[in-house]
Specification:
Blueprint: E1 2-3, E2 24-25, E3 31-35, E4 45-46, E5 53-54, E6 59-62, E7 71-72, E8 77-86, E9 94-102, H1 123-132, H2 145-151, E10 157-161, H3 171-178, H4 180-194, E11 198-204, H5 208-217, E12 223-228, H6 237-245, E13 260-264, H7 265-275, E14 283-289, E15 296-301, H8 306-310, E16 320-324, E17 331-333, E18 346-351, H9 366-370, H10 377-385, H11 389-394, H12 405-409, H13 416-501
Parallel strand pairs: 1-12, 2-15, 10-11, 10-13, 11-12, 14-18
Antiparallel strand pairs: 3-9, 4-6, 5-8, 6-7, 8-9, 14-15, 16-17, 16-18
Helix pairs in contact: 1-2, 3-5, 4-5, 4-7, 10-13
Length: 502
């Protein structure tokens, strides 16, 4: 097993270590709330109604967007509401959700899959099973797994990300320790689908028990292991690829463009469940940690409230701060009346403390040395603070992964990453505003062009009518002269006739 590293990042030990990484099975919840808005694409449309009885694993909402996955019931019971509710998202906005009251039976619907004989299954059929089972990236990104697989057919390398996203998380480590056979089989499914020459399982060097568990069940020569230092941000996809393969994914590019597929280890386990055990994604492992309790991992049904999951731990009676996701990139939440979603990998419960105020930047350059992307956060900070988006763009703002390494090491306690998030949002707004301005200008210019064209066409039409009238009058005059001549000739003939008669 080789050792790999990468520049930048910060060494952060697990702030809340435990002697043994366990998984607690959460009791069946009395109620689940399932959001219909997915990470990408349009909101799913319910295919059930209030009052309907649903079974565990039943599709309750879906969309025609082939880039998205359906929503499944995580318990059996009665649909009690389809309405707007608060969801765990940094926007703080409400989203349409389906609420299901449990009947206590956990009765499953019959689902499809390939079974253990997946090697004889058509590759596209397996990908369809994965999509229909609702499998997405469980490392926190939530990107649909089937979409990645469709782009990575015939890739040469498969990377399984077994590094924890952030310090304090243990959900992936617990999964590898307790479900090594399923993980290895899931990797073999991906090897069959993609036809990759090799699969590399990346694990941090402080997770030896997880490594040994996987090694014991691995009998495939195409699967190897790579150990990375327990340094944040080891789990970032582009950094992981650079460290393992020395391949750099350009800005705006994708791993699939280089013949590489990355999948989180929890997603691999979910793929095993979908293909071999015929189980859609209705539960996940969540780390509950913080200084207000003894950290643990809980396997919980999707849609269960944060409050119910936290109640399974020995949380103290003090006032608490809550954070969804990691200590670095997570989102502070005001209430625990939020549902567990597919991307909810960790919940921090900390004793409430006063935040230290930020001071002026001392230009120490520490933030520049830890940026894993090689950006200049100090310069970006000044330009973002002054809302100079053009300069931010010059300093590659769009490449910032918002890992918060710069904020973590800042001696002035400046929340640098919040400035970068603000600058990105402002850039997006300005871009949208400029697009609207461009559209309005194009419409105005086209209107002016149309009016000028109509005026020109009308002038041309009037000129043509005038010319036609002039020609007609000239013709009528000519015809009038001819008529006069004819009358004169007729009168002359009459006169001559009269004279002849006389």
């Amino acid at each position: 097993m080789s050792s790999y590293s990468y520049p930048g990042g910060v060494m952060i030990a697990n702030p809340y270590p435990v002697d043994q990484v366990k998984i607690i099975q959460s009791p069946l919840p009395d109620k689940v709330v399932l959001p219909l808005q997915q990470r990408i694409g349009e909101e799913a449309k319910p295919c059930i109604e209030v009052g309907d009885r649903v079974l565990t694993g039943q599709v309750i909402a879906q969309t025609e967007d082939q880039f998205c996955v359906p929503i499944h019931a995580s318990i059996s019971g009665i649909v009690t509401a389809i309405d707007k509710q608060a969801i765990p998202h940094k926007s703080g906005l409400k989203s349409t959700c389906i609420s299901i009251e449990s009947d206590g039976k956990d009765e499953w619907i019959k689902t499809k899959g390939c079974g253990s004989d997946f090697l004889h299954c058509d590759k596209q059929t397996i990908i369809d099973y994965i999509q229909h089972s609702g499998v997405v990236g469980l490392g926190g990104a939530g990107f649909p797994s089937h979409a990645k697989l469709n782009k990575a057919i015939d890739c040469h390398t498969l990377i399984i990300n077994g590094t924890e996203c952030e310090p304090g998380m243990m959900c992936d480590e617990a999964l590898m320790q307790h479900h090594p056979r399923e993980v290895i089989r899931g990797v073999e499914i991906l090897l069959h689908i993609t036809g990759a020459q090799q699969a590399i399982i990346a694990i941090e060097d402080d997770k030896q028990e997880a490594y040994q568990s996987l090694l014991m069940f691995n009998h495939n020569d195409r699967i190897s292991f790579a150990q990375l230092p327990a340094k944040y941000t080891s789990g970032a996809e582009k950094l992981l690829i650079k460290a393992l393969l020395d391949v750099e994914i350009p800005s705006g590019g994708f791993a699939a463009d280089k013949g590489i597929l990355c999948q989180n280890v929890s997603s691999v386990k979910a793929i095993f469940d979908a293909v071999i055990d015929h189980r859609p994604l209705v539960s996940r492992i969540v780390t509950i940690t913080g200084d207000a309790l003894t950290p643990t991992n809980v396997e919980v049904r999707l849609g269960t409230s944060f409050e119910q999951v936290i109640s399974l731990t020995d949380v103290n009676n003090q006032a608490h701060d809550y954070r969804m996701g990691g200590m670095m990139m997570g989102v502070d939440i005001e209430t625990t009346q939020m549902p567990i979603c597919k991307i909810t990998n960790c919940i921090f419960v900390n004793n409430k403390t006063l935040k230290q105020p930020a001071k002026e930047c001392i230009r120490c350059n520490t933030c520049n040395t830890v940026c894993p992307i090689g950006l200049l956060p100090q310069q970006l900070y000044w330009h973002a603070k002054s809302e100079n988006i053009e300069k931010c763009t010059d300093y590659h703002l769009s490449d910032c992964i918002e890992c918060a390494c710069c904020s973590y090491v800042c001696p002035s306690n400046i929340d640098l990453v919040s400035y970068f998030s603000f600058a990105k949002a402002l850039d997006k707004k300005q871009t949208a505003d400029q697009e609207r301005i461009d559209i309005a200008r194009d419409r105005f210019e086209f209107r002016e062009y149309r009016l000028d064209r109509n005026k020109e066409e009308r002038s041309q039409m009037m000129a043509e009518k005038k010319q036609a009238l002039k020609e007609k009058m000239a013709k009528d005059k000519e015809q009038g002269l001819e008529q006069t001549d004819k009358i004169a000739q007729a009168m002359a003939r009459v006169k001559k006739t009269k004279e002849d008669n006389v």
